[in-house]
Design a protein that fits this description.
With 631 residues, the protein is α/β, with parallel strands linked by helices. It has 18 helices and 30 strands. Its EC number is 6.2.1.1.
Length: 631
């Protein structure tokens, strides 16, 4: 199923559009099914109702584990690199991973979990995180992984939204020179989570934790009490595989739902093709499993293809800015998949951290999560890829399950900062505000997809209407991505960034409304408005305009208090980079905040603010501009 030439890509693409069902059925033949499908696809985007491979029976872990055992049981499945370079790395072969997943699956069963139950996972980047994820899939439980940087309140919201029954966590996590007390955060969260019956705790940092009798148990004790034989649960193609929460323009994060068969086929196919993965190569995706990139391209995609996947617990700059490169050298990484934010941050250290490090194993480089600027693209190409490794700039989303628009390594001619062309099966279309298709090349528009693909979301958990409203109602019969996009003269796609109120900070999606709600919870704050602004390393930074009438303490202290509130409510990742105290916000007569103006102020571009005559009080703008000069 690997595409090896540009002509073949063009042929395959054509076929995938002309005969999508035949195309995807052909791809699906490469997977292991307990029973094959009766029907490849039924769909409409109006409800929406999307079903792939209906009637098929499978378990994704049979594909990620069991089917590799006979020929490749001793091949490394996961190579784990710890935060502390002085500590040993760990290699789990497919055989060992299979055994440990089965054993932990039995632990889950012993603790009352069964098919269909939701399980929250809040863990550090250790092999047991991948084991926990796969063990859920093994028994047909639905995992909801929450990134280790989210607060107790965020976790509680997610647990309650999905009525989770169990939590899998660890005592703590290491991140650079910091320690995060995961179990303590979980304890705080669970005060408000009546559906949780059991908490399984992995020992990792050996920090003291409190264990609640009857509720909490240790991972290490539990695995001793079960055997390692656990046949995979038979799942229907459209049974839920997992929920992953992500931010949108309004309200609380929503639980994006992915199902078993389509997600498996799509992540496996895109992994194998985009990265041109060859047997026995080492693949290193630097994301955290708490995000979709980690789900699809650390765990499921690579493992379904029998690949060796690296899990790195640490951060690129600890203990030094050589760390990433040392990991690549040490494990002879062939394919590196990372984020522009990491590239830009490492670029800032120059080439000195690269001295004496052998990167010759690298063969493919990947980028994901945000637009990559040309400077970072060239640095990646020259200093890391030594101009011999193709860069795949992969555009996709939590909702799309896998990569959508991207070069295929060694196949698609690349162009800096372009995600280039749609993968087979993907039918992008650009539309104007009224949903009218913008045809031809050399055009800009809102990016939509007009035909289903196997990896797409099926619903948002517990609220199908919200899924319809968010993705399928803006434009009739189209999936709306929320991204703006340019299609250049060659028909190449360049994603220009979000056109809604979502900001992309270091590749992490954050809703402005969420941050505003968090800031507004701080006593003393009357109202706030949050916008993104260009940030050299993070891509976008968070700029908050805050009305705080009685600023009698020193302003910096109040800023710190507000940051503390945001950290408590959402997590440190949502902390504003800048807070400006203002006496009013630019509102229209109907009470809507004119964010366009705030964005300009945040960018420091106040020369041309456009028409402000519709504002209720245009003077507010001058005041804001004046006080912004004091920041
Ligand atoms: C942005 C991450 C430009 C985009 C996989 C999208 C990108 C959002 C790229 C999804 C890229 C992702 N070039 N922008 N290669 N990849 N984005 O859900 O705005 O965390 O809508 O999924 O990231 O972020 P998410």
């Amino acid at each position: 199923m690997q595409i090896t030439s540009f002509e073949q890509y063009q042929e395959t693409y054509k076929q995938s559009v002309n005969e999508p069902e035949k195309f995807w059925a052909g791809i699906a033949e490469n997977f292991l099914w307990k029973k094959k499908w009766d029907n490849v696809l039924s769909w409409n985007f109006s409800e929406p109702n999307i079903k792939w491979f209906e009637g098929a029976k499978l378990n994704i872990t049979d594909n990620c584990l069991d089917r590799h055992l006979i020929e490749h049981g001793d091949r490394p499945a996961i190579i784990w690199e710890p935060n502390d370079p002085e500590k040993d790395s760990i290699t789990l072969t497919y055989k060992i991973l299979h055994e440990r997943v089965c054993r932990f699956a039995n632990v889950l069963k012993k603790n009352g979990a069964k098919k269909g139950d939701r399980i929250c996972i809040y863990m550090p980047m250790v092999p047991e995180l991948a084991i926990a994820v796969l063990a859920c899939a093994r028994i047909g439980a639905v995992h909801s992984v929450v990134f280790g940087g989210f607060s107790a309140k965020s976790i509680a919201d997610r647990i309650n939204d999905a009525s989770c029954k169990l939590v899998i966590t660890a005592d703590g996590a290491f991140r650079g020179n910091k320690q995060i007390q995961l179990k303590e955060v979980i304890d705080d969260a669970l005060i408000g989570c009546p559906t949780i019956e059991k908490v399984i705790v992995l020992t990792h940092t050996r920090t003291p934790v409190s264990m609640l009798k009857g509720r909490d148990c240790w991972w290490e004790d539990e695995v001793k009490m079960v055997d390692a034989n656990c046949p995979a649960e038979e799942m229907d193609a459209e049974d839920l595989l997992f929920i992953l929460y992500t931010s949108g323009s309004t309200g609380k994060p929503k639980g994006v739902v992915h199902t078993c068969a389509g997600y498996m086929v799509y992540t496996g196919y895109t992994f194998s093709n985009v990265f041109n993965y060859q047997p026995n190569e080492v693949f290193f995706c630097t994301a955290d499993i708490g995000w979709i990139t980690g789900h699809s391209y650390i765990v499921y995609g690579p493992l379904s293809q029998g690949a060796t996947t690296v899990m790195f617990e640490g951060i690129p700059t600890f203990p030094t800015a050589s760390r990433f490169w040392q990991v690549i050298e040490k494990h002879k990484v062939n394919i590196l998949y990372t984020a522009p934010t990491a590239i830009r941050s490492l670029m800032g250290f120059g080439t000195e951290p690269l001295n004496g490090i052998d990167l010759s194993s690298l063969r493919v480089l990947g980028s994901v999560g945000e637009p990559i600027n040309e400077e970072a693209w060239h640095w990646f190409d020259e200093e890391i890829g030594k101009k011999k490794s193709p860069i795949v700039d992969t555009w996709w989303q939590t909702e799309t399950g896998g990569i959508m628009i991207s070069p295929i390594a060694y196949v698609t001619p690349t162009k800096p900062s372009f995600a280039t062309l749609p993968l087979p099966g993907i039918q992008p279309i650009l539309v104007d505000e009224n949903g009218k298709e913008i045809e031809g090349n050399g055009v800009n528009g809102n990016l939509c997809i007009k035909f289903p693909w196997p990896g797409m979301l099926r619903t948002t958990y517990g609220d199908h209407e919200r899924c319809k409203l968010t993705y399928f109602s803006t434009y009739e019969n189209l999936y709306f991505t929320g991204d703006g996009c340019l299609r250049d003269e060659d028909g190449y796609y360049r994603i220009t960034g979000r056109v809604d109120d979502v900001i992309n900070v270091s590749g992490h999606r954050i809703g402005t409304a969420e941050v505003e709600n968090a800031i507004n919870m701080h006593a003393g704050v009357i109202e706030s408005a949050v916008v993104g602004y260009p940030h050299d390393v993070k891509g976008q930074g968070i700029f908050a305009f805050v009305i705080y009438p009685n600023l009698n303490k020193d302003a910096d202290l109040t800023r710190k208090d507000i940051l503390q509130t945001v950290t408590r409510v959402i997590g440190a990742i949502a902390k504003p980079d800048k807070i400006l105290f203002v006496s009013g916000l630019p509102k229209t007569r109907s009470g809507k905040i004119m964010r366009r103006i705030l964005r300009k102020v945040a960018e420091g571009d106040t020369g041309n603010l456009g028409d402000i005559s519709t504002l209720l009080d245009p003077n507010v703008v001058n005041e804001i501009i004046e006080s912004s000069k004091t920041l």
